[in-house]
Specification:
The longest helix has 18 residues, at 185-202. This protein is 24% helix and 35% strand. With 369 residues, the protein is of the alpha+beta class. Helix 3 (111-121) packs across helix 4. The structure holds adenosine-5'-triphosphate (ATP). Adenosine-5'-triphosphate is lined by residues 32, 37, 55, 57-63, 211. Keywords: ATP-binding, Nucleotide-binding, Transport.
Length: 369
């Protein structure tokens, strides 16, 4: 029952068919020395959901995760885990799984003992414990390294052990803060696949922190985009990417170009018409007056369209990126614009070249400025 956005993946419906809420967060506020870093966070994470907190440095992601974990107190608001108020519980009482970038393994213990640690703390009997450790090491592909010490492992292998350790006792909720941040790109992609597979297999509810859009896109059922202590958007990756709710999300999440325009009522229809320079096209929006058009680099193509935005510009630079070419141009009446065009596309895209690019109206989101 996996969908494109993966929303249904691994979730456990309640008898009435709705997905039950694992973590319920309402109106969480937090200030440090008069600076408000969380400004009223509302969030319901569903059973089995993989939810990512995505945002620039300082937007409050780690603070929110630490408050959920119990390492940090909140000033006001409420938090319930599977219906129970956890606000006053210590981190140990909350019993959550955690994988942090800096959350090191115990160096003096073997890999197997690291994975067994949480099970011993919970007094699992030894036969059950051994079977579980074996199963978890199997799951992360490291059964042959059970007797090694952490220093004898690569960074990626250490993160796999950390994941196995956090998941071993089937926590109600797994919190992960930039767990792949220290890994190189290839290893990160490999670990993303691994995380997706493990999540599908176990159906654990996960809250994941990252500032990397691609990582968030690859992993998440839903993404909460954080901006200065608030959610600027909370939706499936596809919805946020294709229909960003604000200019901040458009820029941060899909690297969209933001192009000033004017929207007015279309005398010929119920809808609106958007004007940029001498280009006019119908648009799906209730906004009128000054607006901002969000146009993703990939939506701009070297062709003309009947309904949409057409821009003429001079190429400033052109960068080959594998199958794509990233072209930056200065467009007449619009300003700087970035387009991402197939490298196989014939045509002149070298600096100084004059080009015409268009985006179809259905690929353009009209936003309040
Ligand atoms: N213990 C603290 N004392 C004072 N200020 C803090 C403390 N912890 C965090 N802050 C401030 O709160 C704000 C949010 O920090 P937080 O670490 O939650 O952001 P973040 O989105 O996780 O950033 P990053 O991606 O850089 O980790 C920042 O301005 C930070 O300086």
């Amino acid at each position: 029952m996996t969908t494109v956005a993966g929303v249904e993946r691994g979730t456990q419906p309640t008898p009435d068919g709705a997905r039950s809420v694992a973590l319920h967060v309402r109106s969480i506020r937090k200030s440090f020395a008069n600076q408000e870093v969380l400004r009223g966070i509302d969030l319901d994470v569903h059973e089995g959901e993989f939810l990512t907190l995505l945002g620039p440095s300082g937007s409050g992601k780690t603070t929110l995760l630490r408050i959920i974990a119990g390492f940090e107190s909140h000033d006001s608001g409420e938090m319930r885990l599977q219906g129970n108020d956890i606000s006053r519980l210590s981190p140990a009482q909350r019993d959550l799984g955690m994988v942090f970038q800096q959350y090191a393994l115990f160096p003096h213990m073997t890999v197997a003992d690291n994975v067994a640690y949480g099970l011993k703390m919970r007094r699992w009997d030894s036969a059950k414990l051994r079977a579980r450790v074996e199963q978890m090491l199997e799951m992360v592909g490291l059964p042959h390294l059970a007797d090694r010490k952490p220093r004898q492992l690569s960074g990626g292998q250490q993160q796999r052990v950390a994941l196995a350790r956090a998941l071993a006792y089937e926590p109600k909720l797994l919190l992960m803060d930039e767990p792949l941040g220290a890994l190189d790109k290839n290893l990160r992609l490999q670990m993303e696949e691994e995380l997706r597979r493990v999540h599908r297999q176990l159906g654990t509810t996960v809250i994941y922190v990252t500032h990397d859009q691609e990582e968030a896109l690859a992993l998440s059922d839903r993404i909460a985009v954080m901006q200065e202590g608030r959610f600027a958007g909370l939706d499936t990756p596809t919805a946020l990417y294709q229909r960003p709710p604000s200019t901040f999300v458009a820029r941060f999440f899909s690297n969209a170009n933001l192009i000033p325009a004017t929207a007015s009522s279309d005398p010929g229809s119920e809808g609106a018409v958007v004007e940029v320079g001498d280009c006019r096209f119908p648009a799906a929006t209730d906004l009128r007056g000054d607006v901002m058009l969000a146009v993703r680099p990939r939506s701009l193509r070297p062709e003309t369209v009947a309904d949409g935005l057409t821009i003429h510009g001079t190429v400033i630079d052109s960068l080959l990126m594998g199958d794509d070419r990233q072209v930056r141009l200065e467009a007449a009446g619009v300003g700087p614009v970035v387009a991402r065009i197939s490298a196989a596309q014939p045509g002149e895209f070298e600096p100084g070249a004059t080009v015409t690019l268009s985006a179809a109206s259905h690929d353009i989101t009209v936003l309040a400025p």
